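Justification of resources, computational component.

The compute hours requested in this renewal are based largely on the per-chain cost of generating structure records like the one below. Each record pairs the submitted sequence with a full structure-token output. That output is archived, and it is also reused by downstream analysis tasks.
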Amino acid sequence: MFRYFPIRWLLCAGLFYVGAMWRTDDTVAKATVLFDNELVSDTAHSLDPHPILVELFTSEGCSTCPPADALLLNMDTSQPVPGAQLIVLSEHVDYWDHDGWRDPNSSHALTERQAAYVRALGLKTAYTPQIIVDGTAEMLIRNPEEAMKVFQNALVMSDIPVHIGEVTVDPANPTTLRAHIDIDGKDDNKDADVYVAVALNRVESEVLRGENKSRHLTHVAVVQQLTKIGSLPKGKSFAEDVQLKVKGGTDTKNTRFVVFVQEAGPGKVLGVDMRKPAV
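The structure output for this chain reads:
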């Protein structure tokens, strides 16, 4: 049976030296060294970059998560993999919530999504921080060379074109976001599901208790809801107007839409796109 309680033991053992390496105030600088400098180019990236979905399972109750949060922020802002558009999601799990601090962005549905990945990928257990790339590979953040291989492999995989039209706020209901989604699956031979994630661009938090007590944390692309909006049969296309309600009090200017097509399992991510609301 899948269990979450031993996670902190795994962190203390298997990821101990990650935490040791990153226990400085300059977490962003430390995080960026995970990318091989020879592969991070200052030149212009491809005019048509290959979109790659990067999912970070994290928690504000986990002391080794802040550097991974910083790494995800760097991926989002710097786009350090030439030829790729890294579309990131920060998915806050809830199994740390009983250890002194309840993560305000945690969700049991995201905990279940991580558990499903563990089963589908044949991993030993879930843990935080854990990064899954395109639904098919675990990115081991303690191993820079293996991490870059994951992205190199993702770059050569074919993808389904996913397009999000302009994301607008319903003038009659400021908590409702609308967009048109087009997906060209005519050249694909597998059935898949279509998901929309509504995420906050930036979240800052002052942690009062738990392992990160007194720390100021910053997160990017924090998932507020993840919704399956339909299916994509093999060889077909998908075109639909979508509307999703956000939580009351949410600043819609601080949100983003991420749409992705994924084989059941959860399996391979076949295509992904991201767009922010029109301001």
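The domain at 7-275 is CATH 2.60.40.10 (Immunoglobulin-like). DSSP finds six helices and twelve strands in the chain.
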